[in-house]
Amino acid sequence: MILIGSFLLALPISSADGIAVPYIDALFMATTSTCVTGLVTLPTFSTWSVFGQIVILILIQVGGLGVVTIMTGLMLLLNKKLGIGDRLLIQDAFNLNTMSGLVKFVKNVLFGTLIIEGIGALLYMLVFIPEFGAKGIWISVFNSVSAFCNAGIDIIAENSLCNYAANPLINAVTSALIILGGIGYIVWWDVLRVLKSRSPRNRKIFRHLTLHSKVALTVTATLILVGAILIFIFEYDNPLTIGEMNLFDKIQVSFFQSVTTRTAGFASVPQENLTNASVAVSLLLMLIGGSPVGTAGGIKTVTVAILICSAFATIRNKNSASLFGRRISDDSVKKSVAVVVMFLGICAISTVLILATSDASAIDVFYETVSATATVGLSRNFTASLNAFGKIIIIVTMYFGRVGPISLAVALGRKNESQNVISEPTEDTSIG
What share of the chain is helix, strand, coil (3-state, %, to 5)? Predict the structure, then answer.
């Protein structure tokens, strides 16, 4: 998808002025779109023609839903039966525990996505059509897909959504799309399942959810709320961000910053103007990211929750960690450790390589690489200044950030059939 997209974007027809953009920039744009990251070396709204924007939107949609989901949808549309290999691929892609109901699950994902993106586009039109006329329809559709897929790419202006920082509708719709896309499809259907099975008198929805849904919803809500409060405090008197705004606008901008750092990438305030404390909070939120089996990136909420609980269980000398009255399996802990180590390793390597080949400040580079690894798309106005080597590093970082940790977790999910008859001797080492 990236190679096909880069070829199409490198054609003169994809450029707004009819002059083909350098291939490295076309490749960068194809990668950031397919990996739903949002970092761009050239302004999206002024660089690409309508054809180029359509290519970008298709790449975002495919990247957000996943190639497996799109290909399965096409097979179902052509009335082709899914073989056992196809079903195993779908099961692995969505990290499901059963093979029953896979076709229905994929259909629900596709229809659910189209419905939510459609509603988001209609709500955006209330603002963009009066402002841009008929072009506002295309802007609304593009923004809705980009927000739901947590891509953070827009065709409105060079400064993302900064012009709409005080617009409640734009903030609310964008935040809702980001959260719904990032919470994960499994949580969607689990909540709907409980709602359908509960009687009107018994609406204790949360207690009947699966452990995965409980963790994803709890951690997501906690991170958004705590992040918003901290950003509100740290930016309250900052005249370059929210210092000159009224109280309501300060609250909604702080909330939006907390939400968008969950791998969405839209900016309502210039990231380079944030205080150092807010930068630290944003980096942490970007690293954690969204929830598994959704459109978001990052280490993921469930992964972090498992590691924290495992650490506290070790401190308290407990044999195993537990969440919401359920014991966490050792395999889940091992997978979580592997994902975090690989994720941080990708981020560290790319940071060192860019620092070694540029004169940029460390905080700008680290913000960029974390954003690329977690497929966020927020930048401290640094992406456009990348040299050719830096662009290649970010391209590779975005690719592995989107594919690497997830693929590793799926691979570790398969048990190794060739077990050694004789295991190595055990020896303790000093820890901590």
Answer: 65, 0, 35
User: DSSP string covering 142-199, please?
Assistant: HHHHHHHTT----SS-TTTTGGGTT-HHHHHHHHHHHHHHHH-HHHHHHHHHHHHHS-
Cβ atoms of residues 105 and 73 within 8 Å = no
Asked whether 253 and 242 are in contact (CB, 8 A), the reply is yes
Classify each residue of 386-415 as buried b or exposed e, where b means 16 or more C-beta atoms within 10 Å of its C-beta.
beeebbebbbbbbbbbbebbbebbeeeeee
- Amino acid letter at 179? I
Query: What's the whole-model pTM score?
Result: 0.87
Beta bridge partners of 326: 323
> Would you say 112 and 183 are in contact if contact means Cβ atoms under 8 Å apart?
no
Decide: 129 and 118 in contact? Cβ < 8 Å. no
Using an 8 Å Cβ cutoff, are 297 and 375 in contact?
yes
Residue type, 190: D
Distance CA 203, CA 66 (A): 34
Q: Where are the domains of the chain?
A: 2-413
Q: What is the pLDDT along the chain (432 residues), one digit of tens a residue?
A: 999 999 999 999 999 999 999 999 999 999 999 998 989 999 998 999 999 999 999 999 988 887 777 777 777 777 777 777 767 777 666 666 666 667 777 888 888 889 999 999 999 999 999 999 999 999 999 999 999 998 989 999 888 899 999 999 999 999 999 999 888 888 888 888 888 876 555 567 788 888 888 888 999 999 999 999 999 999 999 999 999 999 999 999 999 999 999 888 899 999 999 999 999 999 999 999 888 777 788 888 888 999 999 988 888 888 888 888 888 888 888 888 888 888 899 999 999 999 998 888 999 999 999 999 998 989 999 999 999 999 999 999 999 888 765 565 555 555 555 555 566 787 767 666
Rounded to whole angstroms, the Cα distance separating 33 from 55 reads 9
The token duo for 198 is 């509960």
